[in-house]
Amino acid sequence: MSQEHHDDDGRGGHIHQEPTSFFWKYVLSIDHKMIGKQYLFTAMFFLLFGGMMALMMRWQIAYPSQPVPVLGALLKPLAAEQLEAKYPDAKTRPKPAKNTIFTADTLKDGKVVIQGGAIAPEGYTKLVTMHGSMMIFFVIIPILVGAFGNFLIPLHIGARDVAFPILNALSYWLFFIASVLILGAFFLEAGTAAAGWTSYPPLSALSEMDPASSSGGAIWVLSLFFIGFSSIVTGVNFLATIVTMRAPGMTWTRLPLVTWSQFITAVFQTLATPVLAAALMMLFMDQVAGTNFFIPAGIHTTADEPLSRAGGGHPLLWQHVFWFYSHPAVYILILPGMGIASDLLSTFARKPIFGYKAMVASMCGIMFLGFVVWGHHMFLSGIGAGMGKFFMTTTMLIALPSAIKVFNWLATMYGGSLSWRSPGLWAYSFIAMFTIGGLSGIFMAATPVDIPMHDTYYIVAHFHYVVFGGTLMAVFGGLTFWFPKFFGRMMSEFWAKVHWAFTFVAFNLTFFPMHLLGEGGHMRRIGSAVEKYEFLQPLQGMNVFITHAAILLGFSQLIFLANFFYSMFYGPKAEANPWRSNTLEWTTASPVPYHNYDRIPIVQHGPYEYNAAPETTGSDWQPQDRQTNAAKKG
Amino acid sequence: MIPEPLKKFIVPAAVGLPVLVGIILTFLHGDMGYTLPNINSAYGEEIDSLYRIIMYTVGFVFFLVEGLLVYFVIEYRERPGRKVIYTHGSQKAELIWTIVPGLYLIWLGVYQISSWERIREKFPKASEGRELVQVFPQQYAWDFRHPGENGAFGDEDDWNEPVLKVPVNQNILLKMSSKDVIHSFFLPFARVKMDVLPGMQTRAWFKLDRIPCWDPKKNQAVLLTEPEFKSKRIAMKGFALKDKVRDTTGVRDFYYEPVPGAKVKVAADGKLEDFDPDQARIDYIFHHMDVACAELCGMNHYTMRAFCEVYPQDLYQKLVADKAEEIDGADKWKTIWDKVYAKFNVIDE
Amino acid sequence: MSDASAHAAHAGEPGHAVHAVSEFEHAQSKLGMWLFLASEVMFFSGLIGAYIVLRMGGTKEVFDGSVLNWKLAAVNTVALLASSLTMALAISAIRRDDIHRAAINIFLTISLGGVFLIIKAIEYSTKFLHHITPGTNVFYSCYFTMTGFHGIHVLAGLIVLGVLLVRILQGRYSSKNYTVIENTGLYWHLVDVVWIFLFPILYLL
Q: Chain A: nearest CA to C101, how far in angstroms?
């Protein structure tokens, strides 16, 4: 009987039998919901790992050369004398480790005179590189696109799965391979890459320049190549899905903004990521095949003779090709978060989104402009002044769509009935924090002001405000909100609020002072500024404060993890629509059944019909597959 | 306690007052808190004033938006009987908040183009009076090369030092190229920053109107104009000026010889020990400011510090003349400079 | 649920029994392939753009196409163009249910692609024998990288075509089920178009 309800509607809602074996159900699943969860759990692991690396960095900045608590003692390498003691037989004794993240103990006459376990200089640059690479590629993009995109797009458009489910699984396993590679680098002798997530050559191309670059950098390149490939396949999949598999009545102007944001993101993924692939392959060739794409002639190492490389390449070429992708990448990092915030806001303000068409137009504006602003990362890199003027203009323009969105969000809140339940709190926080991040961007877009700000903590503050304060807060809100759909249970509202409060306060205490550090000239990517630079010494107090706030911020996330995993198994069972939200996923059961919808819904109106005619309909919400006719009772 | 008609002003006041305070503080920001000294008389003030303009406008928007947001969250919070304003938008509102910010951004862009051109295109020509310095960073040190008395590079009177020595109140034009990886020349007090790449030449220019010195009584750095410098007793010259951080409390010991042979030790609290009375009466000690590398260049990137010493013009001439007399025997950089530079696009106008 | 629908494969996926691919799945699958091809265009654009930049900053002595064997490359160009023709013929054959003709044309496509790769191998090996490697100068860096990645794409295409040939002969495709072949044809045409750009850029100009 139920099988007849699973008919597709002739538009390609593929019919799958739900697999029964553990392997096909949980491991090699082709169900978009399970794949979404796979992305989610992998990304959450990297969130912890990347966050831990950030705390290690902050420890080094605040307490230079002090052993890192707990981790330092556990993970420090053995010094030569200690190896002799542990492995008396010289034949089986391993050599002292090189290129390690932690320092080893310094011994004199068999006694430890300087404790090891502090962050070594080469360790710091590796942490900086890995923290950035992991957070961008292995946390935010997988959660936004792999988890939320996969899980929600078919549900939001009223489909049973994505257009190409097997390719979808392939996407995840490519991501998995990339994860293995990037984690594996920690166990190699050369170690991980150490040239920043931006990996500028010649540093990243030549192992002579840095012990970890080139060999560690080559693994980094391969890992990113796999993850880029995963991204492209996902982008193609999502574009095809949204274009071809919308349920009857789901016109483009009735799509939830979550779906619109995923659509624009998928455009970036499909068209921009391949350029990164090209850049990565050229860098890889420079690293292992002796090519000279990015290596000019006459380059020296610390020796006085030039390297025997033919040269002819140009370091700026990498920056152009890399940023051509990486700027659209930052829009990949924010757009789905904006979509989530919009949907959450409308639900928790019980009001339609103000200016739906303007919101869509803004995102389309970001889509077009996003391809022509990459040079603003390169204002001081040696490009000509004319190119600087061009990119300054386009960058000023791209501030406009984001501003329009903020005003529309504010107008949505005006006159609403704003719930203070945790997804709502996250949505309001998103708007507040994204505003700060966006406004600080204007300083950098003004090129003369970028001169003192570039490569300082001002930039670090800016992007952490948009990605952590913006996207990650939207993610927390989205996970709490869609938890019933993912797992069929509710997260604890109390602990969600506690987590929100701690995170909101600690986040601002950590990252707002970084604006002041940047104004004071504090450069990026340096492990101990105070010991080295006189002009930075007044700022060390702020550094210590930021580190303490960061530790609070890091440990606060444990509240979320505890809430998340406990509720997954023991949380109260959720009804189909605990939030009385309008979009299609709430019309089906919690958790979402394998086939998504018993019948493919027929969409009647837009996704934000809250309080359209509450007196007549008797409710303040209206699912998308119900008539809006005020005369009809809900 | 509070009369009934005034109760509806509680929330707006509670939100509006901090907003107002915030806007006022923003305008005062430049005089409060920590800001870097700015001694670039060529365009330093232009940059800082542009920064202030953006701070005022953006700060106003920040407080407006955040204030409204907090106000809305409180005022429109979910309550029994709350009536929601159902609307899908307003074309008029969209037009206003598209056009007004759009105009602001366009204005801002246009306003700062001339500054950008001055800083990045209009380098001082030789006819305007300038000092040329070639900057040659490597992992992990800076080298600065001066053209000597004849003002041209590539001949015998060129001299180089790891310290950037420049005259005050004079255009300085830096021609920079890297030996190995990408570095970035950052002179914080002058608002100068420019990447330095291998295989090509980048340029930066500035003009300083202050001389960094050290006040031994207050134990802090001080910036003197040239007339001030000349009117004070400054300890410098012919000495090995070492500043050594003894421990993390920041106590420093300066050792200097105002005249050859006379050693005077100045402790952190300004007290002088082992001093010769004639030399003891000093106002300031000649000091330097930091040059930093602002582009990750390898594991010891954080150590890539150099000093920049600023000299009064007459002393600078004497310095250059003294350098000409030194026998520059082991200039190991000379061959590398000439070999490497010969391949680059050296712009020499 | 009937067996046919239970085994209903996604368009573009190696199917099980002979079954009809719906018009919807056919169009959807083709859209997916076009999107993928757009991404491939961007990939090669990245490489070609890099070449243009390097060449503009480089010297004529280094960026001299005459060091390459344009005659062999011309043969390669003809081979690829012909293989695109045979590919199109294969598609039109399968649409007429002419399995025999389709198989022959796929076979010809593979052969012509194989010729391409063999000539490429000859080109590469002669260079290596003369100690010319990707590191010799930046022109060769570009040459080896661009033609190398193109060659990898040709090889991938040939592998897929090989599998298709086997399956055509097994009778798995028909006028109602030829989406995979058409999509492979689109991919093959892209590979051809990329070569049409690479050939003059590297060898002639």
A: 30
